[in-house]
Amino acid sequence: MPSDTAPNNGPWDAKLQQFHGGQEWAQLDNFVEDFSVTTNAFGMPSSGKLAAVHSIEHSHHYPPADQEPAKSSLARFLWPGEFAAERERLILGNGASELIDLVIRMAPAGTWRPGPFHTQYKEYERSARNNNFALLPPGTAEKANVACLVNPCNPTGDYLELPELKTWISDNVLPGGYAIIDESMQPWQSEKFREHSLTSQREYVETLYRAQGISVFVMHSWTKLWCCTGLRLGSVVCPTAEHMRAIKKIQVPWSVNTVALAFLNAVVEDAKYLQDTWEMTPIWRKDTVDRLQTMFPAWEFHGRDFLSWIWINTKDTVVAERAVALARAAGVPVRSGGPGYNLPAFIRVAVRHPDKVNVLAEAWKSL
Ligand SMILES: Cc1ncc(COP(=O)(O)O)c(C=O)c1O
């Protein structure tokens, strides 16, 4: 069962569902900004919003069963040079959550293990548990049939570069097994994110599959980078076109709706939005860390400087609980590390515009 340490899990059924952030905003009369999710500080790109609104006009028709032209557009975004050859490995989903579950359903039965970090995004574990995998303890040296690593890691902010990532895969996946690497937050890395991404490593992935039967999947949630959690958009890059077809076979038809497809087709062209993201996120992140560090010298701030959130160890469960309550009361909810991650002294704070950080800092003055 998911760990459940919070007295109030809001809309989540803590016995059946995995806790996530992002549910409180609708219940707050004084809502200002959602610091509890890792979405882009720039909000939903207007290019995508416009396309999504227009697409309502066509929403009395079924969406395209082949997810086109949005799928090819995303392929062109991921592989500007080689998209035609690569797109057969790509499939879209109703958020990464749908694809996480589908890939784990197809995976070879046996053991499951998480990545090497203190904790990681929990849907992989939830799906493995639901599909009767034996869960290996974090930190185990044992190789698993299915190994899932979130890179950069939500929530800890750890990040492995490609050589370390490949070593981890070799050290942790059994021959014939699956490695699912979640790169949802990786495009924040910089303008050069593609060179640092596993999506650029076709030859490596092919060789690993041929030599050891290890299938490497690269998962993306697009609901964070393009701030569209309500629209539901994800994709997975499969090791081969056959793997992609195996997912297609079990995927519910039209799981990505007309509005989400139109949104995706537009945002991949929005170079300005990404330029702004790469330029401002590290600046706003550093400003927020500096400010909070001054206010709370005992707190520890974790995560790479390009990330859209800050993972904070307050080192005191009572302080963390009060910080969460004060933020919520001021209309700026943050994510407690308690429910879901079972790390109640930690909080996660999204990177946001300085005006919104002012509201949070004001709320925490009495902490
Ligand atoms: C690392 C990571 N992967 C996947 C997801 C799932 O996202 P979605 O289903 O909204 O695409 C999330 C959401 O928080 C996430 O943080």
UniProtKB/TrEMBL annotation:
Record SUPFAM superfamilies: PLP-dependent transferases
Sequence ranges assigned to domain Aminotransferase class I/classII large in this UniProt record: 51-359
A molecular function GO annotation: pyridoxal phosphate binding
Lineage top rank: taxon: Eukaryota
Pfam families (alphabetical): Aminotran_1_2
Name this protein carries in UniProt: Aminotransferase class I/classII large domain-containing protein
Organism lineage: Eukaryota, Fungi, Fungi incertae sedis, Zoopagomycota, Kickxellomycotina
